Amino acid sequence: MGHVELPDSDRSGPVGLAGAPRPRTASNRPRGKELDDAWRAPAGQRERSGPAAARSRSGRRLQVVIGAELLGLGIPAWLVLWAGGEPRPGVAAAVAALAWSGVRAARGRYTGRSPGDPPGVLTTAGDWLLLIGVLAVLRTMTGDAVDPATAVVALLPGLPAGLAAWGVRRLRRHRTVRRVLVVGEASRVERAVRLLGSRADHPYRVVAAVPVGTAPLECEVQVPGRLAPAPADDDASTVLGGAFAHDADLALVVPGPQLSEERLRRLSWGLHDGGLPLSVLSELSGIAAGRIRPAAAAGLTLLHVAPPVRRGPQMILKAVVDRIGAALGLLVLAPLLLLIGAAVRLGSDGPALHRQIRHGQHSRPFTMWKFRTMVVDAESHKQQLITANENDGPMFKMRRDPRVTGIGRLLRRTSLDELPQLLNVLRGDMSLVGPRPPLPEEVSRYDERELRRLAVKPGLTGLWQVSGRSDLSWQETVSLDLWYVDNWSVATDMGLMARTLRAVTDGRGAY
Length: 511
Fold this sequence. Notes:
By secondary structure, the protein is α/β, with parallel strands linked by helices. It contains 19 helices and 10 strands. Helix 2 runs antiparallel to helix 6 and helix 10 packs across helix 14.
């Protein structure tokens, strides 16, 4: 599907949905009924099936969710308090249910969850503990005689109710696809379209673009109209018309020299009056939403970016989880490790374990352990196979490497060859989650951007493993690792370890 534009001979004609730019002057700007109709048509349609209707449906769903949470905690709490002979069980249950809903609302649980937020299990448990504290304060202030143990038991149903509500909202969000109209200068539109189209882990689907100026678009996207290089009265009507024609429910505006602050402000007025939501693409990239805090000062919109976590309680907790997890893993998996070691020894000549020097945090070298998956003299044959390298970066990857043994192929596909690295985690050289540990020859070819991968400990698993492993290009691998380096959290680590099981079972990209 290519972009649609008029031939050069028609580029002085009207714009609207025709797709060609025109000079905006005082004589040809739409006025009177023409301008009113241009603005009114898209807005009228959207009141029936566009963002307004979507907001109405979302509001009704939210009311259902809140009602379900109130009843899910309130009714069981009343039953427990009534069965325990507590005074005024109905009033106490109602107060607890309202406090639960208030805590959830205050912590933003009824709004869209940001990608950097912890998963629902952690947030719901945190909300529930906060509810206990709030009710304890209320009990002290009012002198309520409800038994604390009975109260805690009565509040337990709030946990599954909150988790169920989170699951429903998460399922709804996954089903909702935002149809996006991108607005901006051609080069910036191309970048936004390319990046949004390269990933499927977001709800935004580009359906059209309205470029600013006359520069052609190289990306394949419909172009229902263009904005002039200079601000014009019909900027908003052109964007609204394009959104209406392609049923877009969000305008994604990319600021630039030809889309200045004042022009963007006036465009936002027109789009919001026309019923079309607006998002502005920031120049910041690779930063989790949880690290960004908006603020206002002197009429300016500020984005405060929190630094990456490098010290503090989360780092201590990560180290504790690493050591305990590695120790438990080695203990539980000991029979499997012995079985794999015996299979490697019987499958080919040589030791069961393979040692390699890798670079860890801050480029410190360490000895990494793996089950041997290749013939003993594999390194001496590597130079002969260098032309068959299927990776576009410093890593060497070959889908059908002749040096890999029969048992080695199975171990690589299931990632069982990595299990001895639990010893490296126990020693502190590695973490359970982190970037892939590179070889010294790879590090010698790193540029400044790639060296940032070494700001944290390498991991037994990571974003690279759950996102495609060897099927990823080198730049994709680096981008994923850099995102982790700057945005990791304990909650992120837990999620990645859970996703690793599915990636290992799938086996894609493992060779």
